[in-house]
Amino acid sequence: MATLSAAQRRQEAKREYDAYVASCPSRKLLDRLSDKWVSLVLSALADGPQRYSDLARTIAGVSQKMLTQTLRTMERDGLVSRRVTPTVPVRVDYELTPLGWTLMPLMYAVKEWAEVHMEEVEAARAAYDADL
Amino acid sequence: MATLSAAQRRQEAKREYDAYVASCPSRKLLDRLSDKWVSLVLSALADGPQRYSDLARTIAGVSQKMLTQTLRTMERDGLVSRRVTPTVPVRVDYELTPLGWTLMPLMYAVKEWAEVHMEEVEAARAAYDADL
DNA sequence: CGGAATCCAGGGTGATACTG
DNA sequence: CAGTATCACCCTGGATTCCG
């Protein structure tokens, strides 16, 4: 990459984890981050702590199962924290951990990119399909 | 083309894409970008044009089918371009399009994040599992 | 309200074999 | 070398039901 200096490339080469290697834990982590719900949950929590039901409403179309499953995995990975308020009925809030906050901007940027460049992608698809 | 409803015309005029809405095209685009191979292909092409076999070697563990399928979709979406050199045997090079170059740094950052924060994630997992 | 558990259909995925 | 084709399987992910 042109934006990387030779020194940076050397440093990268020495890095312990390499996502290009299938057996590397970071590759599996990248696979997990490449879950379609993770980016949406992270982006949704950018506004601050939110209740389970708030997340379900913001992220339209997510099933209870997938939302819960995604939040559990993200909690286990240290990206979000779960706070239970033992009222009746129960209230559960999720918020980003410090680690989660370091990842959120990156995923948010991808989500933004998808929204901003949607037209160009659709134009490219139309052009591609026309050449068949 | 069929007559657009008032709501459709408003959306058309404002070009508002919201990835939180399940039916929004940008959501489907985000789902596609959330493919585990897309981020690796984009990152691999950050070094410049590469041959099919180079990509297959760099991205360890990808099957021919998935690599080809991923490249086809990315080509259709205008993220990569495909150049065939009709030698014998055939040589095929892939490179990022200008549109692909705008997305690459974002996905590359996510891949980097996974490598850099791997240890913290593993520590979080260990802590989570210990509390069961 | 915020889950857990179960069932189950569908398709995404990989292995394999073949081709220009 | 760079695919295409076929098949079988697993696992995702939705629907439903029940619980604290």
UniProtKB/TrEMBL annotation, chains A, B:
SUPFAM superfamilies, per the entry: Winged helix' DNA-binding domain
Residue ranges annotated for the HTH hxlR-type domain, each copy included: 24-122
Keyword set, alphabetical order: DNA-binding, Transcription, Transcription regulation
Name recorded for this polypeptide: Winged helix-turn-helix transcriptional regulator
InterPro entries referenced in this protein's UniProt entry, alphabetically: ArsR-like_HTH, HTH_HxlR, WH-like_DNA-bd_sf, WH_DNA-bd_sf
Keyword match Cytoplasm: no
Organism of provenance: Microtetraspora malaysiensis
Keyword Metal-binding: no
CDD domains named among the record's database cross-references: HTH_ARSR (cd00090)
